[in-house]
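Issue 218. Parser rejects a valid record. Input:
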Amino acid sequence: MTVSAGSTNDGGSTSEGGSTGAPFGARLRAAMDARGPLCAGIDPHAGLLTAWGLPDTVQGLERFALGAAEALGPVVAAVKPQSAFFERFGAQGVAVLERTIAVCRDAGALVVLDVKRGDIGSTAQAYADAYLDPASPIAADAITASPFLGFGSLTPMLETARKHDGGVFVLALTSNPEGPQFQHATTADGRSVAATVLDSLREANAGAGALGSFGAVVGATIGDAGVDLDIDGPLLVPGIGAQGGTVDDVRRIFDGVLDRVLPSSSREILGAGPEAGRLREAAEQVAATYAALVG
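Output the parser choked on:
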């Protein structure tokens, strides 16, 4: 596996948010192989803006987010903007998010928009249209979604992703301490809720080939998974670095599926800013570390 800056086409993105004709899973596999397995978060919360010497304003948000996008977009497989940190500035913040997505995709990175949406019927379809339809100005390559209204409630998002060669990462085993109350609860057939989510993702990825387009979010600090993590799709793994997850944790939790792990790091990388070279160096080091797990 080679970890390098690569060309602007490593991820197969298009600046207009449209499909290249290849499913998200295939594009993600190519990007991870070319650039290393890393999803770099862009989380412009007030503390990081201050650390970069920026004001907690739309202007500070713009300088932070676009600076991170310009530095990281050319070198990482995927970038994950956290939508809430843009939305808190209203319409102007969302406009910055649109530009951030475009800059990352122009540079060849896939964009996983962290929105964690979950609803039913026409509302779920509206979310899908907003984030996964290339006609939308805020369309990304993939989104995060919450299944806790029932996995079937995500059908509009999965179908829209299939139509436009996008992806969906579904919350399954998260690192937050409140998560087990729901995720470890058992259903009538004795399976945990997390297991039913993973089983549903495995079904959604059936026949997809080397890597399906529907992934699970599984934290690096969950301890033992206790369920089968082989879903024939990618595993987005937040919680590494500043949040406490280590390489050893990832090796232990994801043994047998390490080639499908997409570690996600935000603060560890963003803390190296604002200088672009230091941001790139931090990202490349993290990517190389996790590439070595499967290399």
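Fixed in the parser; the record now loads. Residues 160 and 244 are 35 Å apart (CA to CA).
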